[in-house]
Design brief:
heterodimer; A: about 120 residues; mainly beta; 6-stranded mixed beta sheet; globular; B: about 110 residues; 7-stranded mixed beta sheet
């Protein structure tokens, strides 16, 4: 079974500062993918970034980067230069197995609030 | 369509009634997923289709829940004898086979009174 743990129910950050959202995972599968999604108050889940378990480099997408520490089983999301529009719920998720499709297991989420 | 479309956006039903929730995936996406999200929680997997067949239905909570995708495009999630505990947002997502990213719809908020 797969498990995702997000230990920060809520985080606050000042506009233009960087923030790290924590995520740890547990799986016995050697091949897996890690995802971060943003869910604004509108409810839609917006894909942010993906990291494969065999990827050598940490994933980056614009202001988002994923700090992947395989030995610690952590996949923290770093948002640089926070913007007011970054205020939302953030979910870490995992897909286990060697395929690029299949179910995602989500964590409980972290509510991020960006202050002006 | 441009994105995953779910209808209705809101549904209020009485306990014991039958409901159908519809998902229209992105055109050409072969994989379709249903998730359920309770307030303050992360989405929980229900069922996954690859084409017309259910590739993984391990998340369906009991036999009151059923989903179909007869032509490999639109999917319907069916809930019989609804209970108050079924109240949640039901999310649908689709992806192109071989791609990692799944695109989500806005969800259907189901309230059982």
């Amino acid at each position: 079974a797969q498990k995702i743990t997000q230990t920060q129910p809520g985080m606050f950050v000042q506009e233009k500062e960087a923030v790290t959202l924590d995520c740890t995972y547990d799986t016995s599968d050697p091949s897996y993918g890690l995802f971060w999604y943003k869910q604004p108050s509108s409810g839609e889940m917006i894909f942010l970034i993906y990291q494969g378990s065999y990827d050598q480099q940490n994933a980056t997408e614009g202001r988002y980067s994923l700090n992947f520490q395989k030995a610690r089983k952590s996949a923290n999301l770093v948002i640089s230069a926070s913007q007011l529009g970054d205020s939302a719920m953030y979910f870490c998720a995992m897909r286990a197995g060697g395929t690029s499709y299949g179910k995602l297991t989500f964590g409980q989420g972290t509510i991020l609030t960006v202050h002006p | 369509g441009a994105g995953v479309s779910q209808t209705p956006s809101n549904k209020v039903t009485e306990k014991g009634k039958y409901v159908e929730l519809r998902c229209d995936p992105i055109s050409g996406h072969t994989a379709l997923y249903w998730y359920r999200q309770s307030l303050g929680q992360g989405p929980e997997f229900l069922i996954y289709f690859q084409g017309t067949g259910a590739a993984d239905d391990s998340g369906l909570p009991n036999d009151r829940f059923f989903a179909v995708r007869p032509e490999g495009s639109v999917s319907t999630l069916k809930i019989q004898r609804t209970e108050r505990g079924d109240s949640a947002v039901y999310l649908c997502a689709s992806s192109l086979k071989g791609n990692t990213e799944a695109f989500f719809g806005q969800g259907t908020r189901l309230t059982v009174v």
